[in-house]
Amino acid sequence: MSTSDATKLLVTDLAAAVQQVPSRYVRPISDRPNFSDVRPSDGYSFSVIDLHGLHGPSRSDVVHQIGHACERDGFFLVKNHGVSEEMINGMMSLAREFFRLPETERLKSYSDDPTKKTRLSTSFNVKTEKVANWRDFLRLHCYPLHLYVNGWPSNPPSFRKQVAEYCSSMRQLTLNLLEAISESLGLPKDSIANSIGSHGQHMALNYYPPCPQPELTYGLPSHTDPNLITLLLQDQVAGLQVHRDGAWVALNPIPNTFIINIGDQMQVLSNNRYKSVLHRAVVNSATERISIPTFYCPSPEAIIRPAKELIDDENRAVYRRFSYSEYYQTFWSGELDTRRCLDLFRVE
Question: Is-contact 135 209, C-beta < 8 A?
């Protein structure tokens, strides 16, 4: 494996050696971040929902807030979510420690095969994309835990234990949210959980190194998430932007919150009532950024379709039936930002 700067596999190692962005990372002029057009989130706020009331007499109010945010924005933040500050800080420290391991140690987990259950890779899909993204990521499947945990990195030494505990906490939080979202649609609270087969859960540790020319590239270009729902933990470095009312809006970090966004499968199940919204990650020249998304998914064999209770003469099914494996393969076969995969599954 060559160690010359021109052939570094990971952007983390390349970034330390270059003073300008290599050509393979430079976006066309029409597809660059254009930071001057981005609206600050402080003047364009997203809902911050307190989940403390989800298990008490104010549950219906919290459910209503969640439904309103899913319908209006497809994005919201949650606090008092039950995941401890100690666990959150521990995950951030662990991710930082992993990406600071020597290159040879990190590359033990490297693969450019999107079907691998545990893999370190870079950009989005190095096999299909024409322009690379300024990001490295470690992707881990994590439900059921016992099937995957022994394939995870063993360095740092606490990695498997810490990540397993975090995954379990995130699964419980997700199930609580799925119940509330079901209720907000007027469905039984177990409706969504019962419609996605035996469930799937995976996560990523995303690392965005400092970039010498952040105006030329993306950490991740505009996309929607192909899964059911995403729970994002991020450090205190801004980078996430959400497309809202025709403009890009910065969704800046708030300590000890998770950002929740609706994925494509939830848009299908809700028959287009809840929207899977375009979002992107930008980079900066001053500092690294870390984000840790948890992706909750149907199992591959699950048949996805709009909930029957949401279909009538006035509200016809917007999407056809499909298996999640069909959807996921379609998503990964293309480039991230060329089209919305969901549009390929609409009823003719």
Answer: no
DSSP classification of residue 246: T
pLDDT digits (tens, 9 = 90+) for 281-295: 999 999 999 999 999
Sign, Cα dihedral of 70, 226, 205, 7? negative
Query: Which stretches does DSSP call E strand in the chain?
Result: 48-50, 75-79, 118-122, 136-143, 200-208, 220-223, 229-234, 240-244, 247-250, 258-262, 279-281, 289-297, 303-304, 322-323
Q: Tell me the mean pLDDT in the region 67-79.
A: 96
Of 326, 319, 202, 198, the C-alpha closest to 267 is 319
174-208 pLDDT, tens digit each: 999 999 999 999 999 999 999 999 999 999 999 99
Cite the beta strand spans of 12-73 per DSSP E: 48-50
> In the predicted model, what is the mean pLDDT of the chain?
93
For the whole model, what pTM was predicted?
0.94
82 dihedral zone (left: phi>0; alpha: psi -120 to 50; beta): left
Q: Please list the alpha-helical segments (H only) found in 213-311.
A: 264-269
The secondary structure of residue 268, as a DSSP letter, is H
Q: Computed from CA positions of residues 106, 107, 111, 112, in that sequence, does the dihedral angle turn out positive or negative? A: positive
Residue 47: other Cβ atoms inside 10 A = 16
